[in-house]
Amino acid sequence: MEPREIIEKYLGSGGEVLFEKILSQAPQKADVIVLLQGDQLDRAPGSASLFHQGFAPRILISGNNKLVGPNTRPEENDFPLAALKQCLVEHKVPEEVILIDDQSFNSLGQATNVVKIAKENGWSTLLIVVSAYHALRSFLAFVKQARDQAWDGKIVMNAVQFPWDTIPSGRVKTAEEMLEVEVEKIKKYEKDLATIEGGLEYFKRA
Q1: pTM of the prediction?
Q2: Would you call 104 exposed, middle or buried from its count of C-beta atoms within 10 A (0-12, 13-18, 19+)?
Q3: Distances from the Cα of 80 to the Cαs of 37, 90, 115, 147, 187, in angstroms?
Q4: What share of the chain is helix, strand, coil (3-state, %, to 5)?
């Protein structure tokens, strides 16, 4: 089954439209590039590339140092934040422009804390780097937090896309299989997320 068919099967045609909008979103100038921890180093080179292309003057790594390594989460082996920072430095990102949020233990925590940090710093645009299979749920979490925290800034997703039949780093399932896990989580954690309709409405306003 194609990724868009998976989304439509579980979330309807509106979900499929929103998914395609997110995956095709072009990078935009932002106050910060947000590198969401997950899939080991898969998302770091793309974050560094966006920085060097001048899309933002800083990178915020959002995650934690507790739920890392093997056997801390089922079918997941994440790297500590220092490894992500080191990868950015190796890709010529100056250490002084790398910020760390180490208090985010899941997707809701990342959205909550990043929006809070954005408000505290007066940032108006976030450029969020995430794996393609996770992009829809992450976007919906950020849209809800923007609303709940009364932050009227702009959310721009940058989905790192690898072939759907490959296994993201630190995982045991393919990206396509992870997408099916994600749509189930969208249903399970719907109270933490904007609705599909709310996500589509956000794109109309953006």
Answers
A1: 0.97
A2: buried
A3: 8, 16, 22, 30, 29
A4: 50, 20, 30
Contact 197, 150 (CB under 8 A): no
Nearest to 194 by CA among 152, 137, 127: 137
Domain 3-200 -> CATH class:
alpha beta
Separation between Cα atoms, residue 110 and residue 104, nearest integer Å: 5
**Cβ pair 182, 23 in contact under 8 A:** no
d(CA 53, CA 47): 10
Q: Which of 150, 161, 184, 152 is nearest to 15 (CA)?
A: 184
- What's the CA gap between 80 and 84, in Å, rounded? 7
- Whether the predicted pLDDT of 25 surpasses 90: yes
Whether 60 has a pLDDT exceeding 90, the answer reads yes
pLDDT of residue 153 exceeding 90, the answer is yes
Q: Which sequence spans correspond to the domains of the chain?
A: 3-200
